[in-house]
């Protein structure tokens, strides 16, 4: 994993034109992106320009480029995800290769931050929207990151021992939520509330924690926030009302993707309403199976013959 993460391809865009957040210790802004969704990246470039922040797009780890050997390395077990998915009534108990792809893009951001010694980083997915007050909100969060403390409702500054602070929710705040007092909430590690991975701050200590708990056993939001996942950092916070949310603008049409799943040694029959029909499910390699009627030949060649791609040589 270490060697693979070290070689992850990233593209740096823009420069820091607003010193507000960098002066408070925000040393990196990472955005996970998928090569086929070019319009999303274009929108994020425009948003980074508006924020006045340089951004590193994590371009490696696209699903089509994950080889059999890489999948086996980074996702060796499906047991915890299957139990969690069933308990939370997810649509299926199998992880998708696309979710592993996104997971590893998040992990690559942590790895890069640790390697560069970044104090704090902002990690976002490529549909995050930032309202006009976003910089002010993040500045409030970082402005007090000086000494450990248990922030009261009156304080919006993160303590220096925080690991992760979620600043994006999958739904835009309602008028009622926006009318409530602003607060910084420390999440009880056993609190049975999920928080999305669309945007969050990570400290150097948080990045190290997340890397130390690889290989991951589910999607990024479970890794970061689920109470039964050992990878979820203990010092987690939310900033409410949510200062960011996905733009919901949709994406360009791409060719319908064939569903790809990791074939782990402990994989059990799929449970859930979105499980692929058994008659359309087949193995294409030792550690990958596919479902659907899409074009399989190029996919099979990709899985069997490519060296790990999306990685810098």
Commentary on this structure:
The protein is α+β, with helices and mostly antiparallel strands and 313 residues long. Helices cover 31% and strands 17% of the residues. It contains 11 helices and 13 strands. The chain has helices at residues 2-6, 20-23, 38-51, 68-74, 79-87, 97-116, 134-143, 175-178, 204-212, 220-225, 297-305, and strands at residues 10-13, 26-32, 55-58, 120-125, 128-129, 164-166, 183-186, 199-203, 236-240, 245-246, 259-262, 281-283, 288-291. An 8-stranded mixed sheet has the order 1-3-2-4-8-6-9-7. β12 and β13 form a beta hairpin. The two termini are 15 Å apart. Mean pLDDT is 88; it is low at 145-154 and 295-313.
Compute the number of strand runs: 13
CA-based shape:
globular
Characterize the largest beta sheet: strand count, sense, and whether it forms a barrel: 8 strands, mixed
The helicity comes to 25-40%
Strand order of the largest sheet: 1-3-2-4-8-6-9-7
State the order of secondary-structure elements, H for helix, E for strand: HEHEHEHHHEEHEHEEHHEEEEEH
Helices, by number, come to: 11
What do the pLDDT scores average to?
88
Hey, roughly how much beta strand do the residues contain?
15-25%
Classify the secondary structure makeup into a structural class. alpha+beta
Can you tell me the residue ranges where pLDDT is under 50 for at least 5 consecutive residues?
145-154, 295-313
CA distance, first residue to last residue: 15 Å
Rg is: 19 Å
């Amino acid at each position: 994993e270490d060697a693979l993460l070290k070689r992850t391809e990233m593209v740096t865009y823009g420069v820091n034109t607003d010193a507000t957040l960098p002066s408070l210790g925000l040393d990196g802004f990472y955005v996970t992106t998928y090569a086929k969704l070019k319009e999303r990246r274009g929108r994020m470039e425009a948003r980074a320009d508006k924020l006045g922040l340089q951004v590193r797009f994590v371009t490696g780890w696209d699903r089509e480029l994950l080889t059999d050997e890489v999948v086996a390395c980074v996702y060796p077990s499906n047991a915890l995800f299957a139990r969690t998915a069933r308990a939370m009534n997810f649509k299926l108990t199998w992880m998708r290769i696309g979710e592993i792809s996104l997971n590893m893009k998040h992990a690559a951001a942590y790895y890069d931050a640790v390697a560069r010694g970044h104090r704090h980083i902002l990690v976002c997915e490529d549909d995050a929207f930032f309202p006009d007050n976003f910089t002010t909100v993040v500045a409030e969060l970082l402005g007090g990151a000086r000494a450990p403390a248990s922030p009261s409702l009156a304080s919006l500054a993160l303590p220096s021992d925080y690991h992760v602070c979620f600043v994006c929710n999958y739904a835009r705040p309602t008028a009622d939520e926006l009318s409530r007092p602003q607060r910084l909430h420390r999440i009880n590690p056993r609190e049975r509330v999920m928080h999305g991975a669309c945007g969050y701050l990570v400290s150097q200590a948080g990045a190290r924690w997340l890397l130390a708990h690889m290989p991951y056993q589910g999607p990024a939001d479970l890794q970061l926030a689920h109470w039964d996942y050992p990878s979820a950092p203990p010092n987690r916070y939310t900033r409410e009302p949510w200062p960011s949310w996905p733009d919901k603008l949709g994406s360009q049409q791409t060719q319908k993707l064939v569903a790809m799943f990791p074939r782990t040694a402990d994989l059990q029959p799929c449970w859930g309403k979105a499980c692929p029909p058994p008659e359309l499910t087949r193995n294409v390699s030792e550690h990958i199976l596919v479902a659907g009627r899409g074009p399989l030949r190029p996919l099979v060649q990709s899985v069997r013959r490519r060296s790990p791609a999306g990685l810098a040589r």
